[in-house]
Amino acid sequence: MSTPLSGPGSAQQAPGRGPVRTGSPRTSRTARNHAPITAAGLAAKVILLGLVAGIAIWSAFPLVAAEKWVGLTVLVLTTTALFYLYLGRRHVPAKYLVPGTLFLIAFQVVPVLYTASTAFTNFGDGHRGSKDDAIVAIQSSSVKQVPGSTQYPLSVATKGDPATGALVFLITTPGTDTVSVGDAGGLRPLDPGAATVGPSGKVTAADGYTVLNFGQASARSKDITNLVVPTAGGALRSSGLSRAYEGKAVRAYDAGCDCVKDSDSGKTWTADGEVGAFVAVDGERLAQGWKVNVGLSNFTRVLTDERISGPFLGTLIWNFAFAIGSTGGTFILGMVIALALHSPRVRGTNLYRMLLILPYAMPSFAMLLVWRDMFNTDFGLINNLFGLSVDWFGQDWSARAAVILVQLWLGYPYMFLVATGALQAIPRELTEATSVDGASRWQSFRAVTLPLLLVALSPLLISSFAFNFNNFNAIYLTTEGAPFPADNPSNGATDLLITYTYRLAFGGQAAQFGFAAAISLFIFAIVAVVSAVSFRRTRQQEEVYA
Questions:
Q1: What are the residues whose beta carbons fall under 8 Å from the beta carbon of 64, sequence distance 6 or more?
Q2: Of 86, 320, 415, 530, whose CB has the highest number of CB atoms within 10 Å?
Q3: Nearest to residue 206, comparing CAs of 172, 230, 229?
Q4: Within a 13 Å sphere around the CA of 123, how many CA atoms are in the beta-carbon half?
Q5: For residues 407 and 494, what is the distance between their CA atoms, to the nearest angstrom?
Q6: What secondary structure letter does DSSP report for 191?
């Protein structure tokens, strides 16, 4: 009797075995990998992809308006790739890797690259826009009222919150009901019927704008005075809170000499492309400049400017001392407490641990302010409790000791927790074996417990060192860098590089983002080198105790 041929996927009976399913292995794997999508999974995919599409469309309009075609191309390609990836059933590992990679690029790589690029520019207050923007700002800010200037009824309005929204001028052309709106970008007419004009000619309401009352306008009088609206014949400025005039700019740009001339004084400022500013023969610069590439000047300034390079080395040494002292001190104290509570003879360890981590549970910025008051010379708790009269923040070393003591109190609970976890992971058989061999407790701790603790906690110590090296709050909320020497009010005895940078870049009359970015790269390089060396030594320890 003949046996029928078995087709693909049919079951065959093998001698002594159950039915065997034959068929394509590839088909079986495909069936397993392409499991049907549940309704909840499909809904989540639709919502997330819809959100991606919405964000892409929302982002495309400003890119098109600004003619940022490279950015628009990247946006389109990224969105298309995401839809291709998540609408298909292939590339399963990439579905999990892509979100994290995109967030890494957006929140880590891009900010670092932007900071690095800013370090080679003069970007900051007075140097934010282009040269054309600077020329408009110079001419507009020099507007003066001249005899016969046209006067306009003025209403001040905002888009949004009256206290913080961007200001605009709503003016009415004399003798007509034509209303125009003006801001730093220029003057443009409003659509007929979009504004309501009162009997005095002032605008009382306008679509899309909030007209300020007298009290709201008075609160922002300085901003109103500084607002200049460029026009074809000059610029509009306010005269009080209810009138505006179209004045004439006394400073005008001359393209022939690439300079700005003042018609009142006859002085001339010539464009200097290396510094991004208009400079006179006597060295005077106009406040409004433009953003340019300055090469390595921000970096060389740190090394060649005596006002900066002088205290920079001292600040760097103290920065290392603060980071090492804070990290090492909290580690030693936390480890000692963890060892004490790790003993089986101690009772009530849970209660002790709960009490010991209280500083870790409190907001650090609030505790820093409390400690600042506790070190007050006159009414501080420290002096009153111990009967002292120490001016803690008035002397260099007492101020430094105070900030390290504060860090010790704030940081030891964290080290206590991680040391407790590491101790519980060390087998007791190891320490018991050393005791059998006749080793003392100190010898057992030094030969077994401490090396194993360091292997487990070294990455945490490195990250803690990096954090304390840039611990802005610890200094700024307690001493603000004080005490300061009489001859240098910009560099205090407790300043870290990060607080010193902040004061140099933002503590003066204008922000210097390019210079701050350059010093940030110095700090980044120092921390990166220290971390790399430390991680290398950590790997060597792991190989020894593996």
A1: 72
A2: 415
A3: 172
A4: 15
A5: 13
A6: P
